[in-house]
Design goal:
The structure is a single chain. With 75 residues, the chain is mostly helical. It has one domain. The longest helix has 14 residues. The chain is globular.
Length: 75
């Protein structure tokens, strides 16, 4: 379905962005609303929104912020 090279580029380029990786990890841990999470040092809400947009655009989460099967490629 997806070539290894394509997934590697996506993983290194997009998921190398820390907030995007953090939000995806939070979903994997069962945290359903990262924007409401009680961070010690909360990121800017725009940063969280951008990470959610990126994850949706890549297909790692669906429109309901549920992790998709494609997420397995990003591990």
């Amino acid at each position: 379905m997806y070539s290894f090279c394509f997934i590697s580029v996506l993983k290194n380029f997009y998921l190398g962005h820390f907030p995007t990786w953090l939000i995806l990890s939070m979903f994997a841990l069962g945290i359903t609303n990262p924007s409401k999470f009680d961070f010690i040092d909360a990121p800017n809400p725009f940063t969280i929104a951008r990470a959610l947009y990126t994850l949706k655009h890549l297909g790692a989460i669906d429109l309901n912020c549920i992790i998709t099967e494609l997420r397995e490629y990003y591990n």
